[in-house]
Amino acid sequence: MRGRTPTSAPATAGEIFRLVRDGVAGTRTEIGRETGLSRTAVAARVGRLLADGLVTEVIGAAATGGRPAARLEFNAAGGTVLALSIGVSRSKAAVCDLTGTVLAEDVIDLPAAVGPHRLIGDAVTVLEKLLLDAGTGDTGIRGIGLSIPGTVDAARGWSVGVPSLPGWERIPLPPMLTERFPAPVRVDNDVNVMALAEQAAHPDVDDLLMVKIGSGVGAGLVSGGALQRGAWGAAGEIGHIPVHDGPGIGCGCGNVDCLEVLASGRALVRDLAAGRPEGAVSTIADVVALVKQGDPDAVRLVRIAGRRLGEVLAAAVNLVNPALVAIGGDLVGAFDPLVAGVREAIYRRSMATATQSLRIEPGLLHGRSGVIGCAILVLDEVLSPASVDATLSS
Ligand SMILES: [Zn+2]
Questions:
Q1: Residue 217 and residue 338 in one domain
Q2: What family does this chain come from, according to its entry (predicted)?
Q3: From the CA of 218, how far away is ligand 1's center (Å)?
Q4: For residue 64, pLDDT beyond 50
Q5: How many whole angstroms from 209 Cα to the centroid of ligand 1?
């Protein structure tokens, strides 16, 4: 009875599910050994997990001379979760299986400035279509993961203090989704969920800093294997840290020369558009295209933005000593000059011990880390032993 003392309460179905999901136990005999439960108690709990669809039974090859052993496996197809990643200029929606694999996804080409009712209303329509595309329909939706830019009050499910999202402040978002899809909703910051997704994509890394550089700039921190949200959910809000020797541009937050007004995608669009024909540069995609064409101004400005980002990241690197800085967001298409600037500043300003093996890489999930991270966020909750027990007893 490894890890269980005689005074522990008997293992629940939810705890047995965790043993199967984590690959610790795959047969009823192994479950009995891990939990100390009797054969009948194991059979009853496994029966409920099988009936609910969270695990399936696979008849394996017979061991030499023995009876074929029935192996229990986590059933990725035993339900779905919905993922909705809200962005300032566009959003993404997806239907995922229980491992967080995307089954169907789409972009919602609507700025968040239209307000939460209009945007989430459109998202519900898109999600209905995606459920049809995925072939799963409405049944078996186990949860919804939602991310929004800026600071999130996860308990209340709303955003606080997001200057880039006018009209979203303190509006409860989960009811807009649960009205149509009655399932538990988890809400978090957009970069936090990207950090969860990149952490899952890098199982060898326990300490990583996820940096999103799109319309704004933000970071998400995984430390010691766990996402760090901070006391009020504002950890990683690096966009409003002022950089030194800036040109003196005022920011919506009241400060001057915040990272976000100098080194975000929006700032680069502004700086590159200056002196060019009207409409020549109006989106982050235009900036990325110019960099890819080798436009000297674009390459130079992105490198300077990278240096400013690196100036702020250097302090973070010294403070938390990540193994990996993963960079995502729409500007990652201009990765080479961006990361050249970041490296220059980080190596100049960080201690050698913090940087000697530091990896600075584009995120592995490209444009998908937002929705995959939303799925992981809610899966962590709804597949926890306590939630599984609550579902089975309801
Ligand atoms: Zn600011």
A1: yes
A2: Belongs to the ROK (NagC/XylR) family.
A3: 12
A4: yes
A5: 21
